[in-house]
Amino acid sequence: MSENTLSIALADDDEDDRLLFKMAMENLKVNTELSIFNNGQELMDHLNSPNHRLPELIFLDLNMPVKNGMECLKEIRGDTVFSDISIAIYSTSSSERDIDETFINGANVYINKPTNFDKLKEAIAKVIEMNWQYHTSRLAKENFLLRI
Amino acid sequence: MYVKFDVNAICKRVLEKQLDSFGLEYTLSGTREVRLMDKLSKEKEQELADALGNVGIFIVDDTKAILAHQIKETIIHMIYTDKEAHRYKSSTYLADKLHYSYAHLSNVFSQTTMVSIENFIILTKIDYSKKLIIEDKLSFSEIAHKLNYSSSSHLSAQFKKTTGMTPSNFQRLVKKRKERRIDSVKVTV
């Protein structure tokens, strides 16, 4: 386990949210390597650039300028190069329609952005632990759906 | 003056120097695996570990990882294939099959995999129930029975706790996802 680091990407246009996310990650017991992007376009440019390690897990904010989370989700799921990546949508919206749409478009996780820091840590830890199990065990990855 | 490091090359050279000083025959594969041609005595192995430790290289003890892997395989066998398994408590079953005390298995598993054996069993059962739900050949209560739950509401509750959604919601989303995928394939063709 200590030999492995989990590579994680976050795309969020809100600076405070990015900072909170980063702090929450620092408290985890897993070795992680976090890349942070300010919007969906930056994330997609990074994913499409050659010669780098693809993340195993992406946290995507739904509402972002330039390219929003749903557009990124569709682009990522439309390209088989990225089929091993798990996608966690992370949004303030709790509308059932939004949630359904993200799962139907291929998201693995939907997180209602928690309002306090402890809840955020808990949610991130749960996603990472679950994702880890799907990566390291013989569980059916295509059935990985989680709502927090 | 500034310098740049090729860390892998440096580490490899340091490692080779140490191994050579022990007069060992070996091959290196990848950047981290050393295959020794001869079996070392316990004392020699300790000396080597100390010598490597002095230069900041540590031998990884992967027997725990191997045992954790065996535990996972046994759990999968227990849930998917062994029809007699329900007669035993899972702790007894695992201890019996793997010839270790359950306490030992449980420790090794949690240390290596970030999850307890109990939670991994739940996760595996829920994963199996997902497959059966998608196949859509059995009713929820038949699935619950097959997976050894006392009732379909017990399965539903554990499903909801693990995935955040009800089994029927899961089934609906997966169906819609498949339809969407088929539609998008048609469009690109």
Architecture overview:
The complex is a heterodimer of chains A (148) and B (189). By secondary structure, chain A is of the alpha/beta class. Chain A has a single domain (6-147), classed as Response regulator (Rossmann fold), CATH 3.40.50.2300. In chain A, 40% of the residues lie in helices and 20% in strands. Chain A is built from five helices and six strands; from the N terminus they run βαβαβαβαβαβ. Chain A has a six-stranded parallel β-sheet with strand order 2-1-3-4-5-6, with helices on both faces. In chain A, helix 4 (96-104) links the parallel strand 4 (86-91) and strand 5. In chain A, helix 1 crosses helix 5 (117-136) and helix 2 (40-48) packs parallel to helix 3 (69-77). Chain A is globular and about 35 Å long. The mean pLDDT of chain A is 89. Helix content of chain B is 67%, strand content 4%. Chain B is elongated and about 65 Å long. Chain B is mainly alpha-helical and 189 residues long. In chain B, helix 3 (63-80) packs across helix 6 and helix 7 (140-146) crosses helix 8 (152-163). In chain B, a hairpin with a 3-residue loop joins strand 1 (26-29) and strand 2 (33-36). Chain B has a two-stranded antiparallel ribbon with strand order 1-2. Chain B folds into three domains: 7-60, no CATH class; 62-114; 122-189, Orthogonal Bundle (Arc Repressor Mutant, subunit A). Classes of the chains: A alpha/beta (148), B mainly alpha (189).
